[in-house]
Amino acid sequence: MHFNGYLAAFRLNFKIELRSIWLQAVIVAIPLIIIPFMLPSYRDSLRAQGHLGANGSEQALPGFAILFSMFSLQLVLQLFFQEHEWHTWDRMRASAVSLLELVMAKLSVSFMVQVIQVALVMLIGSALYHYRPNGSVLALAAVCLATSIVLTLFGLLLYIFSSSQNMAMSFNNILGMLLAGMGGALSPVSGFPDWAQKLAKGSPIYWAMDAVGKINFKHAGMAEVWPDLRILLAFLVALALLATVLFKRGVQRKE
């Protein structure tokens, strides 16, 4: 992969995303608007679990940040499907930019937007709702970055397996809510039935929220959240390998 080709494709896709910056602003604003309505129930739930100093933001803020980050996966889908809708995919493939450079540029733009969205929700939410993790902020940042990469690759797989953008968007909304809900983004997994707690471990969101819980309530640093990060990295590698094997076949179905 040549850096110049990647950089040119990145700039092009970044300019395309700037046209829908209003949508990114909405995705940042909505969780911040919803959170105050959820704080009392989350506060009571966390205090019932023994976290007597909790104000509810410890669950609400990271949970809704991750949930709406999953909704923003439509950015991945748009960046790929627009090429087919505009009939520019073949032109891009005939240019000096390689397939790897093109794909990595699109994924990089989506990943960057997701990171900015999560960071804004967490930073603004911390100021508004007094979110104060008692563990390592560096560990929290690492969890958010790893989760964003996993979700970006999940969006790539939705593109590969979907025959149209509408199908991909539908899958994204359904699977996004399912993975976020069963992973504990909407409510603590500890309140789930035993069978649901076991099932929750199949979602990468579970491991992200588990790490966040350690940082919020157990003074955790990088060493303490490393087991969760390791599993998130395993999801990352598995999704990357699957996408690599299936990508060309997925593109051919859309041509």
Automatic annotation (TrEMBL):
Protein location: Cell membrane; Membrane
Keyword list, A-Z: Cell membrane, Membrane, Transmembrane, Transmembrane helix, Transport
Positions of the ABC transmembrane type-2 domain: 22-250
Keyword Nucleus: no
Membrane-topology annotation of the record: Multi-pass membrane protein
Main subcellular location: membrane
InterPro entries: ABC2_TM (IPR013525), ABC2_TM_bact-type (IPR047817), Nod_factor_ABC_transporter (IPR051784)
Transmembrane segments: 21-39, 59-81, 102-131, 137-161, 173-192, 229-247
Domain of life: Bacteria
Entry's family note: Belongs to the ABC-2 integral membrane protein family.
Protein name: Transport permease protein
